[in-house]
């Protein structure tokens, strides 16, 4: 099977030319698997869709909800409102 035009070889060649995963293995060596299309990691290192921990209470380490997206956004809005109120108070005191 040294013939590069053999159909079985032609299917394997794009696999060898694919960009490699940029993750490191436990030994510290780079991962040799091909990266998932349009991603930097292979399927084993988080490149697959749906990889990662579930959000919210479905995650086993969910405790109190202090760092949920909703809670973070609410604190961001509160800080912005407080900054506006401080600016308004400073403006009134300057008059």
Briefly say what this structure is:
With 95 residues, the protein is mainly α. Helices cover 39% and strands 0% of the residues.
Tell me about this structure:
- The protein contains two helices and no strands.
- The protein is mostly helical and 95 residues long.
- The radius of gyration is 26 Å and the shape is elongated.
Secondary structure elements and pairings:
Layout: H1 7-17, H2 69-94
Q: Which class do the helix and strand fractions yield?
A: mainly alpha
Output the radius of gyration.
26 Å
Strand fraction equals: under 5%
Termini, distance in Å?
88 Å
Could you say which overall geometry the principal axes of the C-alpha atoms support? elongated
Helix content percent band = 25-40%
Distinct helical segment count: 2
Subunit arrangement of the protein: single chain
What is the average of the pLDDT values? 84
Give structural attributes.
0% strand; 95 residues; elongated; mainly alpha
């Amino acid at each position: 099977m040294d013939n590069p035009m053999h159909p079985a070889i032609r299917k394997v060649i794009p696999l060898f030319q694919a960009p490699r995963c940029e993750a490191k293995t436990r030994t510290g060596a780079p991962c040799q698997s091909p990266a998932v299309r349009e991603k930097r990691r292979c399927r084993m290192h988080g490149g697959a869709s749906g990889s990662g921990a579930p959000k919210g209470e479905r995650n086993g380490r969910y405790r109190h909800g202090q760092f949920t997206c909703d809670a973070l956004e609410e604190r961001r809005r509160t800080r912005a409102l407080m900054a506006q109120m401080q600016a308004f108070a400073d403006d009134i005191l300057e008059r």
